[in-house]
Amino acid sequence: MLALTIYLSFAGALLLALFPRAWGRASRVFALAVALSGLAVAVAGFIEAGTQGTVSVADVAWIPAMGIHYTLAADGISRVLVLLTGLAAVAGILFSWNIGDKDGDRANEFFAFFLALIGGVYGVFLSVDLFLLFVFYEIAIVPKYFLIAIWGSTRREYGAMKLALYSFAGSAMVLIGLLAAYAAAGSHTMNLHELAQYNFPISFQMWAFPLVFTGFAILAGMWPFHTWAPTGHVAAPTAASMLLAGVVMKLGAYGCLRVAMTLFPHGLDPWGFSFLGIGSWRTVFALFAAIGIVYGAAVALVQNDFKFVIGYSSVSHMGLVLLGLLTLTQIGLDGAVLQMFSHGILAGLLFATVGRIVYERTHTRDLGALSKLQLGKAMPFAAWLFVIAGMASMGLPGFSGFVAEVQVLIGAWQAFPWFAVVAGIGIVVGVAYTWRAMQRAFFSDAPMAAADGVPVPEYEPVTWAEKAGVLLLAATSLLIGLYPRLLLDVISPAVQALPHALLTGGRP
Amino acid sequence: MNAMNYGELFTITLPETILEVVSLLILVVDLGWLRKRSQSVRMATANVLAVLGCALATVWLLAHPQAASFGGDALVATPIVAAAQIGILLLTALVLLLSVKAEFSRNPGEFAAIVLLGTTGMMLVAAARDLLVIFVALELLSLSLYVLTAFAKSSAQSAEAALKYYLFGGMSAAFMLFGFSYLYGLTGTTSLTGIAGALAAQSVSPLLIVALVLVAAGLGFKIAAVPFHLWAPDTYQGAPAPVAALIASGSKVASFAVLIALTGGLIAAPNYLQSSTWVVLLVWMAAGSIVLGNLAALVQTSVRRLLAYSAIAHAGYMLLGIAAHSSQSGSAVLYYALTYALTTVGAFGVIAIVERSAGSDRLDAFAGLSRRNPLLAATMLLFLLSLAGIPPLVGFWAKFNLFAAVLRAPGVGHWGLALVAIALAASAVSLYYYLQVLKRVYVAKPAQTAPMQVSPVELAVLLAIAIAVALLGIFPTALSGWIPLG
Questions:
Q1: What are the tens digits of pLDDT across the range A87-125?
Q2: Residue of B390, B435, B476 lying closest to A63 (CB–CB)
Q3: Would you call A238 an interface residue with chain B, using a CB distance cutoff of 8 Å?
Q4: Domain boundary assignment for chain B
Q5: Phi, psi of A499 (to 5 degrees)
Q6: ∠ at Cα A345 (A341, A346), nearest 5°?
Q7: In which element (H, E) is residue B51 found?
Q8: CA-to-CA distance for B424 and B445, rounded, in angstroms?
Q9: Antiparallel, parallel or unpaired: β B68-70 and A68-74
Q10: What are the tens digits of pLDDT across the range A33-52?
Q11: Are A125 and A137 in contact (CB under 8 A)?
């Protein structure tokens, strides 16, 4: 049943591409209907599967001569991320409800690219066959380019091209690893589980693992390959930023776990020697993740563009995901997957506040300019929304971020105590940059730019679509924060079912 | 050579004969009856007749299972050769259909007739397994293409392109013939199977290396591989669009078909040194083409030149498959060549339409195409993304199949993984220049907003190609009856 999410999205995209250009409003209604039905399928699939292990979705021979099958299946991790994709898709469309008002908006194309991207993302999360996974992974790259280059803002062509080239370079690295694995295994199969059964020689895993892991981690925004992320986020239209941070970066982290770590678990083993205290790829990447957490947070602390603050905070939060994955402990991996979900929701909420609710009304994202507008009074809805989203994002108990970050930190403490300390510092800096952005954008004491006596400017009221999107995302984060077992009960068995070599890997 | 069996010869070459007869018929019809008619009627009639000729030859090939060979294997008719030939006929027919509206020539009959002669050459090249037949067929193909390149008589660019093409081509043909003569001198036979047998029995000699280098120069010219690629950008830019499409499609398929056969002949022998000389040549040509083609394409402002450099890069990818010389990699190369050619024909079709409207093939001429003609823009999107190797289009699948075959080929040493890695990294780079075109098509604001006029035939052909590019990517097994996979 979950396969319907893919078909619905692609069929919707194809139909939208054929819509007449004048049907702006009809396009967005149609797109919302498609996204809602996708979400409904994702929720239904999530509930139906309950806490079961892997649910098989589809299995058809596709290219028998090469052993490539159209195999879809969903374990707990996939189902959680499919759910996230459905939520992000609906919220993204709700927050692009202004596209289609004008004739020149090319609304049908916008939503066609949007749904094509969503379809690719659903596909990646559900694929078991690696060829299929890669196909969906690349399908998701191209629409991003057009979404940003056509409908974006600040330096959009630069940001879009940078993002596309980084993604494509990463996927080329992944493809080299997959082709080499396919050739080395010698058998005619691309099925993840069958390939994982094949014991690749340690020497092979030692180069294939870092190659594939880095290829995927580029898209997850791993330091030092993260630079596409802030520029891409800033250039993108709100809905595309939400998708980028919300689900596309999760594709990278998911690929790291599902492909690189599952296929080549011994790539995480110690090298047998150590250099400056670094003795395995696992430590190398954990170090990168830890640096990313602090670096992203520190850079966010000094940004003046509101969207750059959120963009760098994504780098920081994705660092936590990667660190959680590399702990190779049950609790760390649980936390990493939960953090993927949580960050997907919260990044969406933050980008919606900054890019849509504030920017569409004030037409500036400069914190200095915003501080003169007294937005706390002029736009109380946006101000309180940012307070809530910011608190959730900095890890306030009661929201989803807290549960995820605590688990990652505990896992990291067991695996690499020093990196846990570094990550902890990053989280503290996270409080600081959120606080600073909140204070400067909404609750500044700076005098109004205009002379006293001028009334507080009237901004357009918040629309129903914005309220609905906010409600959807904030309620989800709160729900998961208050009752995390809703997701953890599904994630944990899936983490336990990961290859044994992975959960013991890297330790002598 | 064995004794001639003319009946057999007639059966094997009947498709080629059909093309010859039709090309003469076109001349008679065009010059005999239609001289007084308008230019467009003459062009349409000549092209439609030529397409019918291609269709007839295709039907004959489809109806007759191939398992024959003629005269000591001078010409063979195996299923895989038939696949290449049908592909060539189909590509020619598409090019002819796309040029129904073309206005570059005042001699439509001659144009269509020479296209068919060139196609005959391509089909013979694909089937030839004898040095002399290979050479004669390649010359028939090349001479037709030289003439066609110069066909836009009012355009100085066309003449310049033809002259460059001819001078390079003549020289490389001389090199190749010289190399063939050495091969004959070393082995005493012109048949590829005979050569394979004779080479297996002797040690590697300097003369053989010279011969191989010369042959590589000749064929490297035909496929535009570095360092024999210099003619390609100018010819692609100056030739009339349908002719450029033909050079980039059918001619490439034929040349790669003969390269597969020749490689099979040269290194069928289990003689490591001999095979290594040829493989080393191919690998260096491949690496050079991949790197130089992709890098040079980055800075082009003319879309035709961009496609020329991308063609050089694609020739590099295919050369990797040739160098791997397993039976899988051979069919993977053929699959790649056919699907690449199909996509390129489509891309040149779009370029021709844009040129007719904007008067140039510069990147800026494509600005805002998606607003001026969304369907045309969508087909260009599919063609270029397929060339860049983005799934689910056929270009991705062809690349995957090719590189998997290269890595799995038993004769591939450690160069295999390194070069596949270079090729994949380079194809990541290639996305940049394809996106440069697509950025103009989808993002840039058009200089003029009037809808771009496309004739129904052109649009139908382009849509058919685009749908084929998408469907073949989603169902790659559709062609496996013709070209075995994996």
A1: 999 999 998 888 877 777 788 888 999 999 999 999 999
A2: B476
A3: no
A4: 6-479
A5: -55, 140
A6: 115
A7: helix B39-63
A8: 33
A9: unpaired
A10: 999 999 999 999 888 888 78
A11: no
